[in-house]
Description:
By secondary structure, this protein is mostly beta strands. It has one domain (11-384): Methylamine Dehydrogenase, Chain H (7 Propeller), CATH 2.130.10. The chain has no helices and 33 strands. It has strands spanning 60-65, 74-76, 79-83, 86-91, 97-102, 112-114, 117-122, 125-130, 136-141, 151-152, 156-160, 170-174, 180-184, 188-189, 193-195, 198-204, 211-217, 223-229, 237-238, 243-247, 250-254, 261-267, 277-279, 282-287, 291-296, 302-306, 315-316, 320-325, 335-340, 346-351, 364-366, 369-374, 377-384. A hairpin with a 5-residue loop joins strand 29 and strand 30. It starts with 59 loop residues before the first strand and ends in an 8-residue tail after the last strand. Mean pLDDT is 90; it is low at 1-24.
Amino acid sequence: MRRRTFLAGSVGSIAAVAGCLGFGDSDRALPDDPTGQWHQYAFDSRKRGESDVTVPDRGNRAWNAGDAQSAEPLVADGLVISAADSVTSLDAKTGEQEWKQELEGTTDETPAIADEQVLVAADDHLVSLAIEDGSEQWSESLPRRANDPLTTDGSQVVVPLEARRDGVGLVAYDVTDGAQLWTGRTVSASTVAIYEDVVYTTGYKQDGDTGVLQALSATDGSQIWEVELNQPDTSPVATDSGVLVCDGGVLAIHDHDTGERMRQLGTFGDRIAEPPAVADGLVFIGSNDPALVAVSVDDGSTQWTSSMGVAARPSLGRETIVVSAESLPEANAAGIAALDRSTGDLRWEHSLEGFDVYPSTAPVLADGAVYFVSNESSGVSTLGDLPSEEES
């Protein structure tokens, strides 16, 4: 194990510049301290995309800070984590920088938080940083770069790797010391979902053409079952009813024990670009019509549809669904929209300004705050229940 050598700076070189905001006078603090956690891509290890938090009543700009480009921000204990060439810890209310640790490399994939550590796949290394101060805890070499967000169940972190014909598509590491626990033999593998000691992943066999849904043991990576898919569109989502899979435009639910397709919930064009979110018996999915659709897990019946192009996986708050939109319902622009979860009615929208701007990530939610990354500005952007900039 190579420890304390991968980061460009030592603990002593970590920047701790409290009060440093992203864009100076244009930044505003949120009215209240955001609470709630969002420790990994799609919120939890099951990838349901749901957090029991209240989305703000308005979505107006607060602060922008950090240097994230394509990795989703994370939220933990009043902090927001931004990752790219560096990992930066920001105050969730004000955007003030708590600490910053430069990486010897860069990360395009969303990190994960477990056991008071931020776990980051930077180039060909997996690095653990203490969430308290950014100090390096351990570093391990990866067989090759990660190609999808990391997933943790609290005790281990699973890293999907770039495709290669040797058949190793997943590697799992102990979050305590970085010891390698197991490997999964899929040529290409997606972000995994972990449910009751089973790891689910979609990918392709060694021929590169045959799609599969696999169930692996979370203990040793051994295969429990495998079923073929026509064209795995997205990573899987684990629900109590089964495993949700997008397969060549078809949304279906598969049996936990056997992988058998139990029922089809609908067909949404030739391909489903982003994984769905699921809560309270409903699946929320962005199709390529374009449209945002809510369908029943039980029978696939459509509950509501919104004619909005969706740019990333939806995120669910307590009563609200928040999406990164290619085209907002009212503004002729890309941005972030909040809709009623039960009806699909628009609650608010926030448009991005400038030519060819768009959200780069799905929204990440905390009580009273929405965090996201876009090409409108570098780093993490924040929306909250504030008056518009024109009003203030």
